[in-house]
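Bench notes, afternoon.
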Amino acid sequence: DNGDATNMKILDAAAGINVPGEVQTTGIGYTDGDNALTIADGGGVTVVQDLTISDGKGIIIKSEPSDDGYNGVFAEFDNATGDTITKGEIVYHTGTANQVAPARANAIGTLPAIAIAVADVADGASGNFMLMGICHDTSAFPTLAIGGEVYVSDGAAGEITTTIPGDDGDFVQVIGVALHGDKFLFNPDFTLVEIA
């Protein structure tokens, strides 16, 4: 003890210890022996160093998100399209630093799709877009065939489809595989096949 524990409160067993400011420790352990760490609702984790995952371990993403749920790896991008990018829209990188816009498979200039909006992003704003993960959205997606491939739509910007684009000048990009009638694994393949 170096005397820096000012205002530290030890609460009851259920509530734990309340420490204002920073806490440093060499390990975390619990009496039940599971050494698990839980971040409370509303909390977040910022990692300012490399994160090392031991052999045989991984990052577990819940495979059954609730409706309107997007679980996966996110990145923040900017919207300068003049319109809101809505939740569930597929986006491509515009060529301007950090900007994305709704993708469409009828022209090479609006591909490849790289991410999907996880919430509405207003024009001029930044927002989170999922790079890879599992999406469940009954209002944003058409009916999907379990096990079937999901593509960027050639009919409307930002939409997905289960039908392979087939018009001359269209491009086929597989962006995922359906896991349920309104849920799919978003894992875009950047290979584009032109229909001629």
